[in-house]
Write a structure and sequence with these properties.
Keywords (chain B): 2Fe-2S, Iron, Iron-sulfur, Metal-binding
Protein name (chain B): NADH dehydrogenase, NuoE-like subunit
GO molecular function, one term (chain B): metal ion binding
Distance between the termini of chain B: 22 Å
Largest interface: A-B, 55 and 41 residues
CATH architecture of the largest domain in chain B: 3-Layer(aba) Sandwich
Helix content of chain A: 25-40%
Number of strands of chain B: 5
Oligomer: heterodimer
Number of helices of chain B: 7
CATH topology of the largest domain in chain B: Glutaredoxin
Strand content of chain A: 15-25%
CATH architecture of the largest domain in chain A: 3-Layer(aba) Sandwich
CATH class of the largest domain in chain A: Alpha Beta
Order of helices and strands of chain B: HHHHEHHEEEEH
Number of domains of chain A: 5
Largest sheet of chain A: 5 strands, mixed
Number of domains of chain B: 2
Pfam families (chain B): 2Fe-2S_thioredx (PF01257)
Helix content of chain B: 40-55%
CATH superfamily of the largest domain in chain A: NADH-ubiquinone oxidoreductase 51kDa subunit
InterPro entries (chain B): NADP_DH_HndA-like, NuoE-like, NuoE_dom, NuoE_N, Thioredoxin-like_sf
Strand order of the largest sheet of chain B: 2-3-1-4-5
CATH topology of the largest domain in chain A: Rossmann fold
């Protein structure tokens, strides 16, 4: 580092900033200066994955690295005084020491960090930080010591499969692109992460942009491409800034451009900002979008490896896949292949969200079970409620019920459940989540995002959505379930691209595992999770109502009776279930039953 | 989806500025989307005259440009309100009842999703995921994020923004009109 005796690092990834990291950082800088602490350095880093404890501040005092969670600007004074000036860590805010001891140690214990190796450890805006952690050693090794075929053989031997969701072997994909005739080829990094509830790629691009770029360079060398594009969502402004800065810094040091690292290898890179279309995660749609057109998919074959961007052979990989590549080159194929199951090697990053205690980013070895991730790594369900299901693979994936919680993280095993590995979104649901509503939510998403090119996706998903909307509103009909099944199977079989083919999955899997919930909605007009607004009873909890009369005044049908400072009551006969009382109550006294 | 540039309310790039930009970035095909993104950054939306200008420079038909604009969620053909409310409807926010917040904001502001209030103050737009899942449910107003929301908190926030607008207007009154 430098002459500083203490280094204070603030996590300023998007999740950290949302929790107020910028204000914490400014306050630390202000107070460090005000207290004259000239041997203290203040730095920033990306997401370490503990989103549930943001804002995170690490104090490295030369002996130990102490990580503090839930730091707010008003805690800085005590933190600096007690830890930095007096040398006594503040025990009640400490969550981890030296990455292994402390109340949150369990979160990291089962993780194996390959993709996230640098996230939360380096300043993502510093090329020197990346270089200090073996950065760009892999590409140098590749251009100096290996032939392109040897690189491809190594990637193939590692067993790495595409982390975007489908799990196609990366080495095989590269070989196709290498074998395609032509001198002009492209490498494209797909950073158009669109699944709601997934933020793995964002964290990597934000927290460790160079690892993605190095992966792209190695790919370029292997397939014979000299140009690359990073297609990144415009909704990820920070990731774009960090990637741009990384490219600028590389160019300034002649590490991007012609004749790199003392060899004849040349590689240049551009960033394309996606303009907000989920379907652009599909590779042919992504190519159309880079070309400046409407991002509509086309039939394959020809595959992009043969005819891709500008009609030239193109290899498209996901962020996580590319970030793994430098690690494989430096550690060997066997190191990755030693992790995981027979057919799924290495690690997988998951974005944990929903009703789980530790929401955030985890990287686990393949072959771990779903239960181990949810309970051992993420601490179980909020409020210790019952674990009901997990949605994997976002809108293209499916729901896996708690009864299959021992399913291994393995492409084939997860496919057997009807879900898919997907890009890594894992949304955990408890007994208060309605599965019919969940299916409706995902279908509404894909329906909205359908590009409209093929009929089965454009119209089919709309018909399914209409049925689901009816069911959650209590207007379901007995033949709705067979209709959903039939439509779903047809769409799967006939849609043009992956978006349409997988769109029915959330409905089909919830029908497979939670059919009784659909039936309760349809036949008994009842929502077993007490979630669907039209199918619940609104009640006022006598223990919480203070008799402020707000709900009675706001109720459009005057269904609420009660006098000032007296408990109020809802007349279920008059109630139209608009939910207004729930939103106006300041005492949390209105409940759904 | 950038909030409009309110520091320079009158700022409008001339067609020649766009042409210059195109000349600088236009060495390869596929510049239409970046060009539209730049236009929107400047105006806050894509005005009709910009479509005509871009078409005359790029020779891409206006109809095709319109097709691209309407395909991508990022582009808008109407000006934004002063405060852009982005309501997260990502999965985590959804399971934490973002729907209730949506209905609440719609009712409070008397507007629909992707619409702007009559006074030009607020634009409401649902977005897929703001990536603050651990703070769900979340809204963003311009570049400020508000997490762990409840209906009373949302009402309070809207009230504060209305007051903020009134204070700002009072301060600028008598000066140049925006």
């Amino acid at each position: 580092m430098n002459a500083s005796s203490t280094v204070i690092t603030v996590g300023t990834g998007t999740c950290g900033v949302a929790a107020g990291a910028d204000k914490v950082l400014a306050e630390i800088r202000r107070q460090v200066a005000a207290r004259g602490l000239d041997r203290v350095a203040v730095r920033e880093t990306g997401c370490v994955g503990m989103c549930y404890s943001e804002v995170l501040v690490e104090v490295a005092d030369g002996q130990h690295k102490t990580l503090y969670g839930h730091i707010t600007p008003d805690r800085i004074g005590r933190l600096l005084e007690q830890h930095v000036q007096q040398g006594k860590p503040v025990e009640e805010w400490r969550i981890l020491t030296d990455d292994r001891d402390g109340p949150e140690a369990a979160f990291l214990k089962r993780q194996k960090r390959i993709v996230l190796r640098n996230c939360g450890h380096i300043d993502p805006l510093s090329l020197d930080d990346y270089l200090a952690r073996d950065g760009y050693k892999a590409i140098q090794k590749v251009v100096k010591e290996m032939t392109p075929e040897q690189v491809i053989d190594l990637v193939q031997a590692s067993g790495l499969r595409g982390r975007g969701g489908a799990g196609f072997p990366t080495g095989t994909k590269w070989r196709f692109a290498r074998q395609s005739p032509g001198t002009e080829k492209y490498v494209v990094c797909n950073a158009d992460e669109g699944d709601p509830g997934a933020f793995m790629d964002r964290s990597v691009c934000e927290g460790d942009p160079h690892s993605v770029i190095e992966g792209m360079m190695i790919c370029g060398y292997a397939i014979g491409a000299t140009h690359g594009y990073i297609y990144c969502r415009a909704e990820y402004p920070k990731a774009i800034v960090h990637l741009r800065r990384a490219i600028d810094e590389l160019k300034a040091r002649q590490m991007l451009g012609t004749n790199l690292f003392g060899s004849s290898f040349s590689f240049d890179l551009k960033i394309k900002e996606g303009a907000g279309a989920f379907v652009c995660g599909e590779e042919t749609a992504l190519i159309a979008s880079i070309e400046g057109k409407r991002g509509m998919p086309r039939l394959r074959p020809p595959y992009p490896a043969v005819r891709g961007l500008w009609g030239k052979p193109t290899n498209i990989n996901n962020v996580e896949t590319l970030a793994t590549i430098p690690w494989i080159i430096l550690n060997g194929a066997a190191a990755l292949a030693s992790l995981g199951t027979e057919k799924s090697k290495g690690t997988k990053v998951f974005a944990m969200a929903g009703k789980v205690k530790r929401s955030g980013l985890v990287e686990v070895p393949m072959g771990i079970t779903i239960n181990q991730i949810i309970f051992d790594v993420c601490g179980g369900i909020i409020g210790d409620r019952a674990f009901k299901a997990v949605q994997m693979g976002g809108p293209s994936g499916g729901c896996i019920p708690a009864s299959l919680g021992d399913t291994l993280i393995d492409y084939e095993q997860i496919n057997q459940t009807g879900a898919i590995m997907g890009s890594g979104g894992m949304v955990v649901m408890d007994d208060t989540t309605c599965m019919v509503e969940m299916a409706r939510f995902f279908l509404e998403f894909t329906q909205n995002e359908s590009c409209g090119k093929c009929t089965s996706c454009r119209i089919g998903t709309l018909r399914m959505l209409e049925i689901l909307e009816r069911i959650v509103e209590g207007q379901g009909k007995p033949d709705d379930i067979p209709a959903l099944l039939e439509l779903g199977e047809h769409i799967k079989a006939t849609a043009l691209c992956g978006l349409g083919q997988t769109a029915p999955n959330p409905v089909l899997t919830t029908l497979k595992y939670f059919r009784e919930e659909y039936e309760a909605h349809i036949h008994q007009k009842r929502c077993p999770a007490h979630s669907c607004p039209k199918l619940v009873e609104y009640v006022i909890r006598a223990d919480k109502c203070v008799g402020c009369t707000v709900c009675a005044r706001e109720c459009p049908t005057r269904a609420i009776s009660g006098k000032v400072k007296m408990k109020h009551v809802i007349d279920s006969q008059k109630c139209v279930k608009c939910g207004k009382c729930l939103t106006v109550c300041r005492f949390d006294a209105v409940a759904k039953e | 989806m950038q909030p409009p540039n309110h520091d320079r309310p009158g700022a409008r790039p001339s067609p020649s500025a766009l042409a210059l930009d195109l000349w600088q970035n236009g060495q390869e095909p596929g510049q239409l989307i970046p060009l539209l993104q730049k236009t929107q950054e400047q105006y806050g939306y894509i005005p009709e005259h910009a479509i005509r200008t871009i078409s005359s420079i790029t020779r891409v038909p206006e109809s095709e440009i319109y097709g691209v604009i309407t395909f991508y969620k990022q582009f808008r053909l109407k000006p934004l309100g002063r405060y852009l409310i982005r309501l997260c409807d990502g999965t985590a926010c959804h399971v934490n009842d973002a729907r209730t917040l949506m209905n609440l904001i719609k009712e409070e502001l008397q507007l629909d999703a992707d619409d702007t209030t009559a006074d030009g103050l607020f634009t409401l737009t649902p977005v897929a995921c703001l990536g603050c899942c651990s703070l769900a449910p979340v809204i963003m107003i311009n570049d400020e994020t508000f997490g762990r929301l409840t209906p009373p908190k949302v009402r309070q926030i809207l009230k504060e923004f209305r007051q903020r607008a009134a204070t700002e207007d009072a301060a600028t009154r008598g000066g140049t009109s925006a």
